[in-house]
Specification:
Structural class: mainly beta
Distance between the termini: 40 Å
Number of strands: 43
Shape: globular
Largest sheet: 8 strands, mixed
Radius of gyration: 26 Å
Strand order of the largest sheet: 36-37-39-38-40-41-42-43
Length: about 725
C-alpha cells in the first residue's frame, strides 16, 4: 500500500518536502563507489564526475557534456541513472525514463566506451523508452535488458542483439513483474547475470488469469474509455510464478523444480549462489511460512535449507535483508523475527544458523558487512522507536555498539563505502535541518560536509514535542504534538490527529518535517490548532514482533482501538477542546480515519478521508491477505473490520476524497462507501478528482485545489483558535 513521502510525513511547503526527501532512500542504483572505497561518482550538471569522499571539491570529470552528446544532437543526454562496467572502461547510461506505476523504470539506455570514445544507443529497433533494468555482464562485454516483457542480450563489440525469450506479452511477463508483485513485494528488476556471464536467471509471471480492474477515463476524449489494470483482489489467485535459467547465446530455458503449487506460493527473492546454483525464497499464500532453497541450475533440482514460520506473517519485504554472503560464499546473513525481535543471523548452506545481534531490540536494516574488520553495521534504536542510529556488532556475534554520536539525536541514514572505512551520512530531527557529510568509520569523525544549505534559514520548522501515552488496555503508544503559537494553557484548543494506522507506515518519527501538514494552507500552529499523531500497534516501529504483529486479523479493529484510546489520554489535557476533535489520513490513513469517525463518534467529530480502502475485499491479495488471512475461512475479518461495515454509525462531519484514476486503491471503494452512506441517510461531503491517481497530484492546479478543499472543510467544521 503506497504512501507518498509528503503524505506520510505531513510536510508543509516545497522546501520542507525537499529537505525531508533528502533523508529518504532514492529509487534506483546505489552510490557508484570507486573500487578503493574512497571515491564515488554521480551525475551533475549534465556530466558524470568522480569525487573524493574524504574532502570537498568539484571532482574529476569522467564523462563531459561533449562526450554525453549523441552525434547529430545539440544537447547532452539527461542521465537519470548510470553504472560502470567492472573494469571502468564502459559506462551504461539510463535516460528518457518513463513511469511504470510508481517509478520510472522504462527508458532508453546508451553505452559510452571510454577506449573508443563512442556513445551508442542500445536496443536498436526496440520502441522508444521501452528498455528496463539494463545491466553489464560480469566482464563488461555485454548488456542484458528487458523490453516489452522479453529478455535480450546485446554484444557491445558489434551490438548484435540476441532475444533470450520470445513469448512475453502484457500477461506473460519475463524479467520483470506484474502490478501486485511490484507494489507489495518490491519486485521490479526480474533477472540476474550468472557470475560467469554465460547465462541469466529470471522470473516469469503468468498473469493470464488475473482479471482487469477497469478504470474509466471520461475526460481525455469525447467518448469515455476504460483503462485496464491487472489487479488480483483478495481471494483471487496470484500470478503463476517460476524461475528459470537461459544461456546468453540463446536456447531453451531450464526451469527450476521448486516444490509446491506455483500459483499458491510467491517467489519474492532470487539470486545466484555460485556458478551453477541459485538461492530462492518461497512464501506460501498466507505468507506465514518462508523457505529458502538452493537450486541446481543444470538439473533444476531444489532443496530447502532454511525455513521459518510465524503465527501472523513472515516479513519478506521490509524485514528481509536479502542474501549477504560471507566467508567466501559459505554463509549468508539473514534477518528473522523468530525470537520476538528482528535480528541478524549467519546461515550456512546446510541451514545452520548463528545469532549475530543478541538482545531485546530490533535491527531496522542491515547497512554493510566489513569482513576485513569482522564487523556488521546495522540501523537500530533500542531506547527510542522514533529514531534511527548506526550500530555495529562483531561478525561472530555479540554485544552491539552504537556508532552514531550520542549528541546527534534523531534519524540517520548511511551509505557505507566498500572498504568499510567511511560513509555518506545524512542526519535530521524535528529541530535539525537535514545535513549531509562524510564520516570515517567506526570513529564517526566528520571528513567533509555538514554545512547547512541556504534554504534552511528560510524554513520555520514546527516545534514538535514527543510524548508517550498508556492506554486503558495497558499499551504504551508513541506520539508527537505541535501546540499553537503563543500557546496559552488556560485556553482550550481544537486538535487535529494525523493517522496512518496500518503496517505500511510509521508516522511518529524524529526527522525533519514531522509535525507539519503539507495539505493545510497556512500555518496550523499560527491559526490555533493542536496537531498530533500516534503510532498504534501494527505500525512498523522497532518495538518488537508482538507490537508489530498484534494487528494480524485486526486491521480496522485493534489499530483503531489503540488510536481511540490513545486519543482519549491526549484529550485529558485541560488545554484540548474535546468538542473540536478532527482526524485525517491518506490511503491506509484514510481507512483509519473512516473507522475512527464511525466507531468512536464520541471522540472524533470531524474527519477527512483521502484515497481510503473502504472495503478490504477490494484491495490487492498480497497486501490484504498478508495481514488479514485467506478466503473463505477468514472472510469475516475482512468484512467486519472494513469501514463499510460501520457506515451506519457515522455521526460526525465527513469529507471523502478520491481520485477516479487511482490504480492502487480503486475508486469503487469510494462509490461503495457512498452507497452505504446514502442507504443509511448519512450526509457527508465528497470531492472526486477525475483520472487522478493515488497521489492526487496530476493536472494543473490539482495540489492547490486539494489543499484548499482540505483547509476549508477543516476550518468550517473544526474551527481554529483558543477559547
Amino acid at each position: 500500500m503506497i504512501q507518498n513521502i509528503a503524505r506520510r510525513a505531513g510536510m508543509a511547503g516545497a522546501l520542507l518536502l525537499a529537505a525531508a526527501a533528502a533523508t529518504q532512500a532514492q529509487v534506483g542504483p546505489g552510490t557508484q563507489w570507486t573500487k578503493d572505497g574512497y571515491g564515488y561518482l554521480r551525475a551533475q550538471d549534465d556530466e558524470i564526475v568522480q569525487l573524493d569522499a574524504r574532502k570537498p571539491g568539484a571532482g574529476v570529470t569522467i564523462l563531459s557534456k561533449q562526450q554525453l552528446t549523441p552525434a547529430g544532437q545539440a544537447a547532452p543526454l539527461k542521465v537519470r541513472r548510470f553504472s560502470l562496467a567492472d573494469d571502468g572502461q564502459r559506462v551504461l547510461l539510463n535516460t528518457n525514463t518513463q513511469k511504470v506505476w510508481r517509478y520510472d523504470t522504462h527508458g532508453d539506455y546508451w553505452v559510452y566506451d571510454r577506449k573508443t570514445a563512442q556513445l551508442t544507443q542500445l536496443g536498436k529497433g526496440r520502441p522508444e523508452s521501452s528498455l528496463m533494468f539494463a545491466k553489464f555482464s560480469p566482464d563488461g562485454s555485454k548488456v542484458a535488458y528487458v523490453s516489452e516483457h522479453n529478455l535480450y542480450v546485446e554484444n557491445l563489440a558489434d551490438h548484435a542483439i540476441t532475444a533470450l525469450t520470445s513469448d512475453g506479452t502484457d500477461r506473460l511477463i519475463n524479467g520483470t513483474f506484474d502490478w501486485v508483485y511490484e507494489e507489495e513485494l518490491d519486485c521490479r528488476d526480474g533477472f540476474r547475470w550468472a557470475p560467469n556471464g554465460l547465462s541469466l536467471a529470471y522470473w516469469q509471471l503468468d498473469a493470464t488469469k488475473t482479471r482487469n480492474y477497469l478504470m474509466l477515463n471520461t475526460t481525455a476524449a469525447l467518448y469515455p474509455y476504460t483503462v485496464p489494470v491487472e489487479y488480483p483482489v483478495v481471494g483471487e489467485d496470484p500470478s503463476r510464478c517460476r524461475v528459470g535459467v537461459v544461456p546468453v547465446s540463446g536456447g531453451p530455458t531450464k526451469w527450476m523444480d521448486i516444490p509446491g503449487d506455483a500459483v499458491q506460493h510467491y517467489l519474492p527473492r532470487m539470486e545466484w549462489a555460485g556458478p551453477a546454483e541459485l538461492i530462492v525464497q518461497q512464501l506460501n499464500r498466507r505468507q506465514n511460512e518462508s523457505k529458502i532453497m538452493l537450486c541446481n541450475t543444470a538439473t533444476g533440482a531444489a532443496r530447502a535449507i532454511y525455513s521459518e514460520t510465524d503465527k501472523a506473517w513472515v516479513d519478506a519485504k521490509d524485514g528481509a535483508v536479502g542474501w549477504n554472503w560471507i566467508e567466501g560464499g559459505k554463509k549468508f546473513v539473514w534477518a528473522s523475527e523468530k525470537d520476538g525481535w528482528r535480528h541478524l543471523y549467519a546461515v550456512d548452506r546446510a541451514g545452520h544458523e548463528q545469532l549475530l545481534t543478541k538482545g531485546n531490540y530490533d535491527v531496522i536494516s542491515l547497512e554493510a558487512i566489513d569482513e576485513r574488520a569482522g564487523t556488521v553495521y546495522f540501523m537500530a534504536s533500542p531506547a527510542n522507536a522514533t529514531q534511527t542510529y548506526l550500530y555495529r556488532v562483531p561478525l561472530k556475534g555479540g554485544a552491539a555498539t552504537r556508532v552514531t554520536p550520542a549528541n546527534e539525536a534523531g534519524s540517520h541514514n548511511y551509505d557505507i563505502s566498500p572498504n568499510g572505512k567511511l560513509a555518506l551520512h545524512n542526519y535530521s530531527s524535528t529541530s535539525a535541518f537535514p545535513t549531509a557529510d562524510v564520516v570515517s568509520l567506526p570513529a564517526h569523525q566528520r571528513l567533509s560536509g555538514g554545512e547547512l544549505p541556504a534554504q534552511a534559514k528560510s524554513i520555520r520548522a514546527p516545534k514538535t514535542e514527543f510524548f508517550q501515552v498508556k492506554t486503558a488496555d495497558g499499551v504504551t503508544l508513541d506520539g508527537w504534538m505541535v501546540k499553537p503559537t503563543n500557546f496559552d494553557p488556560s485556553k482550550k484548543y481544537p486538535i487535529v490527529f494525523y493517522v496512518y494506522g496500518e503496517p505500511a507506515s510509521q508516522t511518529v518519527t524524529d526527522r525533519f518535517g514531522t509535525g507539519a501538514n503539507r495539505l493545510y494552507q497556512g500555518n496550523m500552529a499560527d491559526d490555533g490548532y493542536i496537531y498530533a499523531s500516534l503510532d498504534n500497534r501494527g505500525a512498523p516501529a522497532p518495538r518488537g514482533r508482538e507490537f508489530r504483529k498484534a494487528i494480524y486479523h485486526n486491521i480496522g479493529s485493534l489499530n483503531i482501538r489503540d488510536q481511540a484510546l490513545g486519543a482519549q489520554e491526549v484529550l485529558k489535557n485541560s488545554f484540548v477542546d474535546t468538542s473540536r476533535v478532527a482526524v485525517w489520513g491518506w490511503s491506509g490513513g484514510g481507512s483509519s480515519t473512516l473507522s475512527l469517525l464511525m466507531q468512536y463518534p464520541k471522540i472524533y467529530k470531524t474527519g477527512i478521508s483521502i484515497a481510503a480502502v473502504d472495503n478490504q475485499l477490494n484491495y490487492d491479495n498480497i497486501y490484504q491477505e498478508r495481514y488479514m488471512g485467506l478466503l473463505p475461512e477468514d472472510r469475516h475479518y475482512f468484512v467486519d473490520n472494513s469501514p463499510l461495515a460501520h457506515a451506519k454509525d457515522l455521526r460526525g462531519r465527513l469529507l471523502l476524497i478520491h481520485g477516479t484514476g487511482d490504480d492502487n486503491v480503486h475508486y469503487n471503494n469510494a462509490e461503495q462507501m457512498i452507497n452505504e452512506l446514502v442507504k443509511n441517510n448519512k450526509t457527508f461531503q465528497l470531492m472526486s478528482y477525475p483520472n487522478r491517481t493515488h497521489s492526487i497530484s496530476e493536472g494543473e492546479g490539482t495540489s492547490r485545489h486539494l489543499s484548499s478543499t482540505y483547509t476549508k472543510f477543516l476550518k468550517e467544521n473544526c474551527p481554529p483558535g483558543g477559547r
